[in-house]
Amino acid sequence: xxxxxxxxxxxxxxxxxxxxxxxxxxxxxxxxxxxxxxxxxxxxxxxxxxxxxxxxxxxxxxxxxxxxxxxxxxxxxxxxxxxxxxxxxxxxxxxxxxxxxxxxxxxxxxxxxxxxxxxxxxxxxxxxxxxxxxxxxxxxxxxxxxxxxxxxxxxxxxxxxxxxxxxxxxxxxxxxxxxxxxxxxxxxxxxxxxxxxxxxxxxxxxxxxxxxxxxxxxxxxxxxxxxxxxxxxxxxxxxxxxxxxxxxxxxxxxxxxxxxxxxxxxxxxxxxxxxxxxxxxxxxxxxxxxxxxxxxxxxxxxxxxxxxxxxxxxxxxxxxxxxxxxxxxxxxxxxxxxxxxxxxxxxxxxxxxxxxxxxxxxxxxxxxxxxxxxxxxxxxxxxxxxxxxxxxxxxxxxxxxxxxxxxxxxxxxxxxxxxxxxxxxxxxxxxxxxxxxxxxxxxxxxxxxxxxxxxxxxxx
Length: 460
Fold this sequence. Notes:
Order of helices and strands: HEHEHEHEHEHEHEHHHEEEEEEHHEEH
Shape: globular
Largest sheet: 9 strands, mixed
Radius of gyration: 22 Å
Number of helices: 13
Number of strands: 15
Helix content: 25-40%
């Protein structure tokens, strides 16, 4: 066991006994009417590509103070775009610069940077954590955060496996924590309206839901690829964490982790976590799932390639209400199209569309089925507002102690649909799924794929 990995009991004892030095506090004038005692102390765990969106979404709230950032990478290029220079030090500088701009002196050094997320969890002044790491860390970090009393904003897909998602649900509920899944399209008024049209029968009887996945946007090294030296400033052992040990390659980590099964589920869990979440919401099955799933088509990288998730996917699921879901790679890359006996409505990249177009002018009456609203005051639908509104919904829930719009059970069920879709693609046969038991009926091979062993000492 590596020397820097204490047991969970020792970690929890450390948190209980910790006395943390008082943080540097932003002057009250920066936060307007929000006194220091009323602010939510936040730490961001993971400062890669997604953090460039998530971190500003937290910073913009005057009742939040970002106290810490954490990442195994000090700083480097090599993320989604060539010009992205990211890691814990750039993130710390961004936070300090943001708060410094709001002070009279123009100076602020109150954001700390950590390599080990457990140092973040040990701080008593941190109320909530944003987990913006590769998927294989979501389960471990969420369970440990819940155990020490932190609320959690966890990016999608919520879990790496169905079993990890179940453990996350248990931990969040056992310890009375708030968890928001980063499925920000639930905070879009247009997405909600789309699903309300379906739920209220405005397209007639719902028959088919089509969901869309993007093509892979990177190509990894093929068979015969060679390991590379670990770059300075990158703690590769900590990056791997609960995943199986594997030799380092630049295309294994940072943004490209999502194309390797040890860390993610490919575009099925990346874009599928959005598309299938919309589908589940509109179908009224976001706390359940289908009863049957079948792999239809899949294209894979050559055997021996570093990347091993599907290049192209298509699976079919059937729900107990008779609705069929078809999830496949193609345009519009993300979204869900609901097809009924009297028309269709679609939300995703490209906005809200319908046939007949008059559906979009529907006014729902007082007796209509209405879905949860992220921010009641939000009337317009601007794409750039989804993530900030989603974060604001989470912060409101932290204060009210009421569930956010994408609570842990919803995030788990959406991720589970993507996971069992991937399993059906790998086995290429029809599988019967029991959404209550969350197991396949009579298929031991498929059930073994619902969980994966974690490399010690990590567990959920």
